[in-house]
Amino acid sequence: MTTYYSEYSKVYVSVDCIIFGFDEGHLRVLIGKRQMDPGRGEWSLYGGFVGANESIDDAASRTLFELTGLRNLYMRQVGAFGNIDRDPGERVISVAYYALINVKDYDDNLRREHGVEWVNIKQLPPMYSDHRDMIRKARRMMREKIKSEPISFRLLPSLFTLTQLQRLYEAVNGEEVDKRNFRKRVKEMEFIEKTELIDKTGSKRGAYLYRFNSNTYDEDPIFKL
Known about the structure:
Elements: E1 12-23, E2 26-33, E3 43-44, E4 46-49, H1 56-68, E5 74-81, E6 92-100, H2 108-114, E7 116-120, H3 131-148, H4 162-173, H5 179-187, E8 192-199, E9 207-212
Parallel strand pairs: 1-6
Antiparallel strand pairs: 1-2, 1-4, 2-3, 2-7, 5-6, 8-9
């Protein structure tokens, strides 16, 4: 068997997945205690090494499916992280991806099986290596994306109130928005459709439920799991 590049040192390539969810008015990220050395017991993102016969996108898709059991997730590449000393074990370059899921769609038994938790992004603990940097960069990307694309609906139930939608925008951006201006903007969004259904869980009067009308918006391609 012919070998090439034998004069160069070898490096490992891994993927790390930043999974965002929205629950109880807070943006949350799925993390767990690392179950391998180095860094065993430290808070960490869920990830794995890229196989010899798979692309980095396929490796990220596989990793996400192993953790969530969900398909057709919204997933985007965040970037490569390759500081020389980022992993004390070996020379490892990691490509990070972020994904958005509805927390209610995630089987809690699967969450416990993998030993991960939904942690408020405002209360992140110290984390292994550069995983906090990955989360920060992913959130910045999501803030920009949410301005131009209706990715927020990946984090909400199929039917939602305008208050829920506003709270989500505030959680992603980390600041309050003016209620009147926000609702004015929503009325201008053709892909948000008002239904005749009313949610009365918050008050006797209730609030109208809305939904995302995919027929009025062609989202750019996403990675299919």
